[in-house]
Amino acid sequence: MGYAVFFIGHDKEAKDNNGNITNIRPSLSNSTREVIAGMADIYGYAKQSGAG
52 pLDDT exceeds 70? Predict the structure, then answer.
């Protein structure tokens, strides 16, 4: 079709008792995540470390 749609959002991190990140996922409601997941071909995650 020649079209691309990008969704940009925030993340939600789960940490264990030692403060280590164990899970990172989009901070969307379940119903919104299901709709976007049904349309998505690729998921990506980018994280900036340090001062930007």
Answer: no
